[in-house]
Design a protein that fits this description.
Number of strands of chain B: 6
Number of helices of chain A: 10
Shape of chain A: elongated
Strand order of the largest sheet of chain A: 5-6-7-3-8-9
Oligomer: heterodimer
Largest sheet of chain A: 6 strands, mixed
Low-confidence stretches of chain A: 297-302
Order of helices and strands of chain B: HHEHEHEEHHEEHHHHHHHHHH
Strand content of chain B: 5-15%
Order of helices and strands of chain A: EEEHEHEHHHEHEHEEHEEEHEH
Structural class of chain A: alpha/beta
Number of domains of chain B: 2
Shape of chain B: elongated
CATH topology of the largest domain in chain A: Rossmann fold
Mean pLDDT of chain A: 87
Number of strands of chain A: 13
Distance between the termini of chain A: 46 Å
Helix content of chain A: 25-40%
Radius of gyration of chain A: 23 Å
CATH class of the largest domain in chain A: Alpha Beta
Helix content of chain B: 55-70%
Radius of gyration of chain B: 30 Å
Chain lengths: ~300, ~425
């Protein structure tokens, strides 16, 4: 379990991280979300003791950062890079050694992972001879070679092709089943929505919302009714329980109040127009995020 | 703790050992040494392979014939042909040499003659002789010509004084110099100028190349780690101090590999050709200064290299350090002429120059024991200080991104830590 309490980091001109707190449990995939420049990478650097926070603390299973913790953490940085002139197997074994692993064990595990990610034919090749996608796989192996209990991945999916994205997601699930804590950052909300058990949304250095995916959705988005119809739908704006209506020619998205009576609403709509399609939808993380940071929803201007 | 230092050290050692730059340095350096030390020596002392023609402006008309004979008898090429031919240049009326020098200049320029000599009207009294040539650096030709003129002119003087030619020849003693170098304690050591020169140069150059090669490798690897952010993974795996210690250790191992390899070549050369460059005592001292210099510059390269962000900056900084290292090479000649000079001693106490200055001085003339002791202590202290400062800079610099920091900022890091 990783506990982050009230982290704060100020650079010369900006407050990059301003009181960020969250908790990522064991056997949990935790998404650290936010737009570019929100402070995700700075937070991660402080978690890994690469940057010293101005204030706040990070604990691992209740204990502060230490040499022992170092060996239990795996890290994939945002910028991709490896020693270009070095051989794959040597590179992986070097990072394993740095995390305190014995060489014989490191070698066996490295070979297993290279096999798993279909890279075994390259094991004695130099990194620079590999394609970009394969280099990312190698870097991923370097991050998890020592069987860490906490894996921290900064934008792990950027630049990955769809096939490798699926591969990485499978490995995420495996790590989760094995009781590891997986923390990953992303600015793609749909990805986070599909992958994370819990999340923390950061904007301009502050936590905007956090908790399990379920909690967040419950707390933030009331449900919405999406309708396609023929006829004049302008009356929908004034129906009871509709907080906000986005009206298009033959379609409407109605955001509902917490206590709205959905059955009655459907009846009223049915009476006014001819419905061709009607569905009750959950708001997406994307729209929750936009709502939370106060950006007007798309289509609102229409 | 130590296991991580060793992990880093092993990585730095093995990966750099495999790098092309290192392998080239390893094999090319001894070749360069041989090229620089042996080839010019061979060229200087090499015998001529063709007959040289020397013009002679001789207003008295008394020297040309005997000189031609003397030169022809004395100096021969390997194939038996004469080494020199004396070609008199016609002198105008009233012993004017003007037309002769015009002619001499023309012939020299066209390459018909190698050069020409201008004698006075009374050659036995006026012994200052002018030699004109396109190449005035031919020591061997000048020496031979001087010897030849000397014996012709002393014969001539003897005739004027009414002495018998046989007597003059008997008086004319030829002296051959053989140089013997004395050590501090006054023991004699059989080594010629060329040998001293050669060995001083060899060691200086070895030390220079050793430091520059590994310094560049070090800076380049730090730059690579910074630019692709590997350093973040490294620093989350081990502390910056462990990382730097590992780098220094790995690099030192690399340096020793290089020295060891070169020593083997040296030992093999000694056995094969029977040439002894240095005595064991000198060799031991040199190794000490090599190690000290190597460690000191490792710290300097880390301190100066880790704040950089681009390859161009790295090259610039490296070239400044190279200049510092090259300086003693430029001083090799004056140091050999006057090994007791005060400026040599003063320069030996500047830590950036100490190892190279001592490597230069030791083969020429062993510095006094107090100087050796004092410089070693100075270097040990300098290494400690440089390592601490480099560590402080390294810790901050490897994680800084964007533009390279200003010098004042780096100095502040080094001071405050």
């Amino acid at each position: 379990m990783l506990t982050v309490t009230d982290l704060r980091k100020e650079f010369a001109t900006v407050v990059a991280v301003d009181g960020v707190s969250f908790e990522a449990g064991t056997g949990e995939v935790f998404g650290l979300l936010g737009p570019n420049g929100a402070g995700k990478t700075t937070t991660i650097r402080m978690i890994l003791n690469i940057l010293a926070p101005d204030s706040g603390s990070v604990t691992y299973d209740g204990k502060p950062f230490s040499q022992e913790v170092r060996n239990r953490v795996g890290y994939l940085p945002e910028e991709r890079g490896l020693y270009r002139k070095s051989r794959l197997i040597d590179t992986i074994m070097y990072f394993a050694g740095l995390r305190g692993m014995k060489r014989s064990e490191a070698r066996a595990r490295a070979l297993r992972w290279l096999g798993r990610l279909s890279l075994e034919e390259y094991r004695d090749r130099k990194v620079e001879e590999l394609s970009k996608g394969n280099q990312q796989k190698v870097q991923f192996i370097c991050a998890i070679i020592h069987d860490p209990s906490i894996v921290i991945l900064d934008e792990p999916f950027s630049g990955l092709d769809p096939v490798n994205q699926i591969l990485f997601k499978d490995i995420f699930q495996e790590l989760r089943s094995a009781g590891k804590t997986v923390v990953f950052s992303t600015h793609q909300m749909d990805q986070a929505e599909r992958l994370s058990d819990a999340l923390c949304l950061i904007n301009r250095g502050r936590v905007v919302l956090g908790g399990t995916l379920r909690e967040v959705k419950k707390r933030y988005g009331a449900n919405a009714l999406r309708a396609e119809f023929s006829g004049d739908g302008s009356f929908m704006r004034n129906l009871p329980g509709v907080r906000r209506a986005l009206l298009y020619g033959n379609a409407a998205e109605l955001q509902l109040d917490e206590g709205a009576r959905v059955q009655e609403l459907i009846g009223a709509i049915n009476a006014g127009v001819e419905i061709s399609r009607l569905e009750l939808v959950e708001p997406s993380l994307q729209s929750i995020f936009l709502q939370a940071v106060g950006v007007p929803a798309e289509g609102d201007a229409a | 703790m130590m296991s991580k230092v060793f992990s880093v050290a092993r990585w730095e050692y093995v990966e750099k050992l495999r790098s092309k730059a290192f392998l080239i340095g390893l094999f090319l350096t001894p070749l360069l040494m041989i090229g620089m030390g042996v080839v010019p020596t061979l060229l200087i002392t090499q015998a001529d392979t063709r007959t040289k023609v020397i013009g002679l402006v001789d207003p008295s008309g008394l020297v040309a014939a005997p000189l031609a004979e003397t030169m022809q008898n004395r100096y021969r090429l390997d194939n038996g042909a004469p080494n020199y031919i004396i070609r008199p240049l016609a002198v105008g009326p009233e012993e004017s040499t003007d037309s002769a020098t015009v002619e001499g200049d023309r012939l020299s320029a066209s390459g018909e003659i190698d050069g020409y000599c201008i004698l006075g009207a009374t050659p036995e009294a006026d012994t200052s002789v002018e030699y004109r040539s396109k190449s005035v650096g031919d020591f061997q030709l000048l020496e031979h010509l001087r010897q030849g003129l000397r014996s012709v002119l002393s014969d001539r003087k003897g005739v004027i004084l009414g002495l018998d030619t046989a007597v003059i020849r008997a008086l004319n003693v030829s002296v051959q110099m053989k140089q013997v170098k004395l050590t501090r304690s006054g023991e004699k050591e059989d080594s010629g100028f060329l040998q001293v020169f050669f060995s001083a140069y060899v060691f200086l150059f070895m030390l220079f190349l050793l430091i520059v090669t590994s310094g560049q490798l070090l800076v380049r690897s730090i730059l690579e780690e910074k630019s692709n952010r590997i350093v973040e993974v490294l620093v989350s795996s081990c502390s910056a101090t462990e990382l730097m210690a590992g780098k220094v250790l790995g690099l030192s191992a690399l340096g020793f590999t290089q020295i060891g390899f070169w020593s083997l070549i040296g030992a093999a050369a000694t056995l094969a050709f029977g040439v002894t460059l240095v005595t064991p005592a000198v060799a031991a001292l040199l190794v000490i200064y090599f190690v000290l210099g190597y460690l000191f510059y490792a710290a300097v390269f880390i301190g100066a290299g880790s704040p950089l962000t681009t390859e161009q900056e790295a090259q610039q900084v490296t070239s400044y350090l190279v200049m510092l290292l090259v300086l003693p090479i430029a001083l090799a000649f004056p140091a050999m002429q006057n090994p007791d000079a005060t400026w040599l001693k003063v320069l030996s106490f500047i830590p950036f120059l100490t190892p190279t200055m001592m490597a230069l001085r030791i083969p020429i003339q062993m510095p006094s024991p107090w100087e050796i002791l004092a410089t070693i202590l100075l270097m040990v202290a300098s290494i400690c200080l440089a390592m601490i400062a480099a560590g402080r800079i390294f810790r901050i610099a490897i994680l800084s991104t964007g533009k390279s920091p200003k010098l004042a900022e780096i100095v502040r890091w080094a001071k405050e830590g």
